[in-house]
Design a protein that fits this description.
Strand 7 and strand 8 form a beta hairpin. The termini are close together. The protein has a ten-stranded mixed sheet, sandwiched between helices. Strands 15, 16, 17, 19, 22, 24 and 25 form a seven-stranded antiparallel sheet that branches. It is built from twelve helices and 25 strands. It has 624 residues and is an alpha+beta fold. It is 18% helix and 27% strand.
Length: 624
């Protein structure tokens, strides 16, 4: 079976002295003040450093409550026991039902003592109080909370989105016995392979630059104010980053030595020990708490982290309660929004509300309060195209099997192995005029690019296009996509960008409410796209030059999808070598790109082969 039917979920939503929970009900400062008392603590760690912690405890003391903990580098403000957050917990459902909510500034950020380390490396087999990491800080925090915060029931749940998702993942490694469950949401797992700053070794430029320009400033001592805005001087990110020139100009022109971690990134251009030590995946073993990992199919930041966190726990902790949720969302969208659409793509249901009410809240209620009979499947996944939730016993589902799609002459794409001995497609690649990643103006990581119309790109001479015939039945793809290309270049290095696209029928109806006059007939929706920095084709830790003109195999994996290409649609593949400024420019010369000079950037002619000897293809997991 492709998907099991939706299981009924019994939600016993009761709480002593609290408003009956409702998905539509907002919280607000006055409501929180009416039901909670705020405390502030400086919790000592094993090495003597103290971490600033805010605790919101229910005023009703007729029962005990679980602790919900979130550790963050983004501040647990507002500071002061008389200053309250406007909402508590992962959603309003939690505050309405009654929990003890705890927020903590991680070591070295905002009001907490100590030195801050980005993605602090995990230390296995610690040998003394001076060996600390985020796992030990979490353990020490929880140990103090269950012993000192009155009215707790001895159970702790942990959650966090994005960077706090990383801290959530770290907390379940050698977890404190009180931790019953955790939900790492869009967690960072590996900053060189696929999360945030790099994809397959290529720098995700606007995200890294913009984030570090604000977040990366040193904090010499605990402080309540730590804001560092950055002014691009133009709304046009394409123009801003092109004008900046090589990456080596970023520090001298803009950062001027103030962003220490940016310079660390520039010093570590391969997958060396600096990055490997920040890979959390090998440490996600022998996990005891129940885990609900959450991600968005269209998360431009940590899609990789969500999928890989789930996979790592599944592989190394086979006996753990390890669940996955993947919805049709951009980064963190599921926390508060209805999530019925993204960009110009409509999902025809409030997917965020469904997740919060039917998945997230019952998960924590079950493990922290024993209140529900919810029986979650191994994976909740939203199938785009058909726009429906699926429950699966495994991910990827057993029903999905590999099917090969070969590049063909004339821009064709099908399952026929090429028989010709002579066949290839060429295109120019010019770092001075790179292919834009969006067809609108923005100087940020415009997250809607993950579902954006690709017609503008396919019309360029430096982009190759291949597509199937019009589909006569559903083509449902679920799981990762393997890219297997045979290519050559006139340069000695090159990026290879591959995009999987859903081409709508020409008569596809426009949105009913359409102030922008969007035309969806022939819309080319990006379903998945990613980059492979060519010099890393044989290993991210061992860059290797291309021999000009020599056919070379380049293989890499696009992150999972769960998408149905409907009858009347087409499956399209686009291939190109620049995607700017999403991906920093490859000089197309084998050099240390982070130290490249203007003279290193050169035009190249790229070739993709499609012959019997060199059959370029994509392998999709298709459900029959």
């Amino acid at each position: 079976m492709r998907a099991s039917r939706l299981l009924p979920l019994l939600l016993v939503l009761c709480g002593v002295g609290f408003i009956a929970p409702s998905a539509a009900q907002s919280q607000g400062v006055e409501s929180i003040k009416a039901h909670y008392t705020k405390y502030e603590y400086r919790i000592p760690m094993r090495d003597g450093k103290r971490l600033f912690t805010s605790v919101y405890a229910p005023k009703d003391q007729s029962t005990t409550y679980p602790i919900m903990l979130s550790r963050t580098p983004y501040s647990c403000q507002p500071y002061g026991v008389d200053q309250f957050k406007a909402d508590l917990g992962p959603s309003p459902l939690f505050a309405n039902d009654g929990y003890i909510f705890v927020y903590q500034d991680v070591r070295g950020r905002w009001m907490s003592e100590g030195d801050y380390v980005n993605m602090r490396p995990q230390i296995p087999n610690k040998q003394g109080a001076d060996q600390i990491d985020e796992s030990s800080d979490s353990y020490d925090t929880i140990d103090w909370l269950v012993k000192h915060v009155k009215g707790n029931n001895g159970k702790v749940g942990i959650w966090g989105v994005s960077y706090p998702g990383f801290y959530t993942s770290a907390a379940i490694i050698d977890a404190h016995p009180a931790v019953a469950c955790a939900s790492p949401q869009a967690p960072i797992a590996d900053w060189f392979v696929g999360d945030d700053w790099h994809h397959n070794g290529a720098l995700i430029l606007p995200h890294c630059f913009n984030f570090m320009s604000k977040f990366g400033h040193a904090r010499p001592e605990p402080t309540k104010k730590f804001d560092h805005p950055f002014d691009h001087g133009t709304p046009d990110g394409y123009e801003f980053f092109l004008r900046m020139g090589p990456l080596s100009n970023a520090d001298g022109v803009h950062f001027q030595g103030k962003i220490g971690f940016w310079n660390e990134i520039m010093r570590h251009g391969t997958y060396d020990e600096f990055w490997k030590s920040r890979n959390l995946r090998p440490h996600l073993k022998d996990i005891r708490p129940a885990v609900l990992t959450v991600g968005g199919w269209f998360d431009a930041e940590n899609l990789f982290g969500a999928l890989e966190t789930y996979r790592s726990i599944e592989k190394s902790s086979p006996n753990a309660t390890n669940l996955l949720v993947m919805g049709p969302w951009r980064h963190g969208q599921w926390t508060r929004e209805p999530c019925n659409s993204l960009g110009h793509v409509d999902f025809h249901s409030k997917t965020g509300e469904f997740y919060r009410e039917q998945i997230e809240f019952p998960f924590f209620q079950q493990h922290l309060k024993g209140k529900t009979e919810a029986k979650h499947p191994e994976a909740w996944v939203f199938e785009t195209g058909t726009n429906r939730w699926r429950q699966e016993a495994a991910w990827p589902p057993a029903a999905s099997q590999p099917r090969e799609f070969y590049l063909q002459a004339g821009g064709g794409l099908n399952g026929d192995v090429p028989v010709t001995t002579d066949g290839n497609d060429d295109y120019p690649s010019d770092p001075a005029k790179p292919v834009p990643f969006i067809d609108w103006t923005d100087n940020k990581l415009s997250t809607e690019y993950m579902v954006a119309d690709q017609r503008y790109a396919g019309r360029r001479p430096d982009v190759l296009v291949y597509q199937t015939k019009v589909l006569e039945s559903d083509l449902t793809v679920s799981g990762p996509i393997e890219v297997d290309l045979y290519v050559s270049t006139t340069g000695t290095d090159s990026d290879w960008i591959v995009k999987v696209i859903d081409v709508y029928p020409d008569d596809f109806p426009d949105p009913k409410e359409n102030p922008q006059k969007v035309r969806l007939g022939g819309f080319q929706q990006l379903v998945r796209g990613d980059v492979m920095r060519g010099k890393f084709r044989n290993g991210l830790d061992r860059p290797e030059a291309f021999e000009p003109g020599k056919p070379t195999r380049v293989k890499f994996t696009l992150p999972d999808i769960c998408h149905a290409f409907r009858p009347g649609h087409r499956l399209m593949v686009q291939i190109h070598s620049t995607w700017f400024p999403l991906v920093d420019r490859n000089p197309q010369k084998f050099v240390d790109i982070y130290a490249a000079k203007p003279a290193d950037f050169q035009k190249a002619t790229q070739r993709v082969y499609r012959t019997r000897e060199f059959p370029s293809k994509l392998v999709l997991r298709v459900e029959e």
